[in-house]
Structure formats: structure tokens, C-alpha cells
Amino acid sequence: MQFGIFTVGDVTTDPTTGRTPDDTERVRAMLTIAKHADEAGLDVFATGEHHNPPFVPSSPTTMLGYLAGVTKDIVLSTSTTLITTNDPVRLAEEYAMLQVITDGRMDLMMGRGNTGPVYPWFGQDIRNGIPLAVENYALLRRLWTEDVVDWEGKFRTPLQGFTSTPRPLDGVPPFVWHGSIRSPEIAEQAAYYGDGFFHNNIFWPMSHTKQMVQFYRQRWEHHGHGPADTAIVGLGGQVFMRKDSQKAWDEFRPYFDNAPVYGHGPSMEDFTRETPLTVGSPQQVIDRYGAMREDVGDYQRQLFLMDHAGLPLKTVLEQIDLLAGEVVPVLRREAEAARPAHVPSGPPTHAERVAAARAAGETHAGHVGAAEDRWTGRTAEDDASAQQPARAGSAFGL
């Protein structure tokens, strides 16, 4: 099972000091956090995508491309990439480039975002959110799996003979998660394609999360990807820890009470009772998150939000150390002990996806070993005989 952190990149005033970092400081803090998570032994760092204050991560691939060069092991991901307001052509290019730069040490999460005004900023209508997610992702997959694409849809200009570059690493596109809080259509989309489903349940009770994950699992099996319990599931979470649980409550309360997303609303007591937010000792976090598999089954990725609400960088790094040093080893050991042998321990790695695609004959021949010209579809044998017509399309038969 993978454990990591995700950031929304909010610029928030520290309520205990009155100090507000500027955008540059916040971006650099996020880079420090990612590097520290890698050094601490966490599995994943994911950044959100936002285009409005008070958030700064407007260019995830820029950030993750830099981190690829200064980290060693951590998987670099998004939380989320806006499939609705980004052009699928740009997504195909940018994330294939990131895949090449990281040598496959990345994946990405598609989502519709939670900021309504972003739609008109990028020429779209929020009322088309679900249709945009469906159409744009269908095109993105074709751009990754077909060398030459002819396409016409509702939400962008047609494509004629278009090739997205660079091509995916080893002929296999990045692994994709679909993130949603409340839309069964997105869970259905993930299940249809055999992709991962990430339920970022940080503001929701487990009863709702359970329903969404169960629906995705049922549809995964329906679409022929395997038993429901083999579906690839991820969850969000929030924690704040100190060795002494009362100290954790006292220290975190002013940040909770003034946070832009939930401040001045429900009490911290109510919020910790009704959502996955856990404030207390490392053991309390272990108990809370170790029990989540009772509701959703064995799952593959758990990400925590830790650098929000104005928390100082020093405090965030201390939280990462507690998470990586005292919580994750226990959760990982417990999850592995309980996991049935046929259930994946994590999402598939790039190497695993390449091996599976080769075994199924689904890697693009122009990238994995065969001497086929990816521009014309002709093989060396075709050229030698000069008798056979060129084959259109890719090795996917699309």
C-alpha cells in the first residue's frame, strides 16, 4: 500500500502570528515539503491544480518536472489535473513529457476541480462539467494510444492527422486516477477504463465514501477488469499529530478555526467525529486509518493533507516525520498482513504496466522492440517486399 501527502497549495495567514507568506515563499515551501517526504521514505507526493488565489500551484507539470530531478524514489502525481478546462492535447503532451523525464516515476489524477469560476476563465461552461470530463478523457486516451488521430467532438476544434509528442514512455501511457467526491459518473468512468478511483473524502463521512467506493468496485467487475476487490482505490485524509494528543488539539485548533475551507463553521470536535480529520497522537491516527479498510475494503493509496491552513513549514516537516516514522510503518504492516494475495498491494508501476502490455501484445510496436515505423505503420519487412500496403493506426488496432 502506498502512503503519501498531497497539497492544495493554499496561501493562508498563520493565525498565531498574523504572518502571510507570499506566493514565491509558498511555492518553495511546497518543493521543500516534497523533497522532505522523499527523504523520509513516503511513497507519493501530489500537487493540486488551481488558477485562483489563495492557491499557487497553477502549473503542476513544471513543479513535478523540477522535483523529478531533486528526488529519488517518491512517485510524483497530481491531486488533481483539471480534465474539464485543460485542452486534452496539452495534457497528452505535458504528461507524456513528465513521464519521460521521471522515467515513469509518476501518475496523475483527473478531476473537475472545486472552483466554479475556473470554467469561464478557460472558455468553458460549468454546466458541461461531466460531459467535458467524459469527452476530454476519451480524446486524451486516443492521443496517448494512437500515433495519428482524426477526431471530432463537441467541445474543441477537430483534429486531422494529429500526432502528440513525445510519445508515452515505452509505448505505455501514465497510470490515471479519477478523483471525485460525489459524482458517480466519474466513478463509472474510472471503472469503464480500468483506471484508479480516488475518493478525496476529507470533508465527508465514511458512510458516503463507502457508497462511492462500492459503486466503483461493482462497475469495475461489471466491465470485466477482475473481481471487485481488485479495483484500484485511493483515499484522502487529514491529520495533525503530537506525542501528547491534548497538545495536538491545543496547537491545531487556531489553524482549524481560521482555515479558509472550514474555519468559522463546524467545531473541530464535530469535524473530527464526522470526517477523517484526526487530531491527536500517532497511535490515534493509526487506529483511525487502519480501520478504514473495514468500510472500503483493501485499498492501494492513502494520501494526507498536511500543509494547509497557514501551518508553518517547520511544523509541516515535523508532521511528515511523525507520519513516516511512527504511523506509516504500522499501517503498511497491518495492511499487508490483512490483504488477500490476489488483491494488488498498490497501483501498478510503470514497469508492471509495460510487462502486462507486452504480454497482451498491446504496447506500441514502434516503442517496444519491433521495427515498425510509427508514422506510416509500415514494418521493415513491408519495405523490403514493397508489396504489402501500410497498416493504418497503431498496434492497439484502433
Q: How would you sum up this structure, described in words?
A:
By secondary structure, the chain is of the alpha/beta class. It has 14 helices and 13 strands. The protein has helices at residues 23-40, 60-70, 88-102, 118-121, 129-145, 184-193, 206-222, 245-258, 268-274, 282-290, 293-296, 313-338, 350-360, 380-385; strands at residues 2-7, 44-47, 75-78, 81-82, 108-111, 149-151, 159-162, 176-179, 196-199, 233-235, 239-241, 278-280, 301-305. The strands form 3 sheets. It has a 9-stranded parallel β-sheet with strand order 3-2-1-13-10-9-8-5-4, with helices on one face. Strands 6-7 form a two-stranded antiparallel sheet. It has a two-stranded parallel sheet with strand order 11-12. Helix 2 runs parallel beside helix 3 (88-102). The two termini are 34 Å apart. The relative contact order is 0.14.
Question: Can you give keywords for this protein?
Answer:
398 residues, alpha/beta, two-stranded antiparallel sheet, 14 helices, disordered C terminus
Span between N and C termini? 34 Å
By DSSP (H or I, 4+ residues per run), the number of helices equals: 14
Evaluate the radius of gyration.
Answer: 22 Å
Q: Name the shape in a single word.
A: globular
Fraction of residues in H or I helices:
40-55%
User: What is the count of β-strands?
Assistant: 13
Report low-confidence residues grouped into runs of 5 or more: 365-398
Structural class: alpha/beta
Largest sheet: 9 strands, parallel
The amount of beta strand, in percent, is: 5-15%
Mean pLDDT reading: 90
Order of helices and strands: EHEHEEHEHHEEEHEHEEHHEHHEHHH
Strand order of the largest sheet: 3-2-1-13-10-9-8-5-4
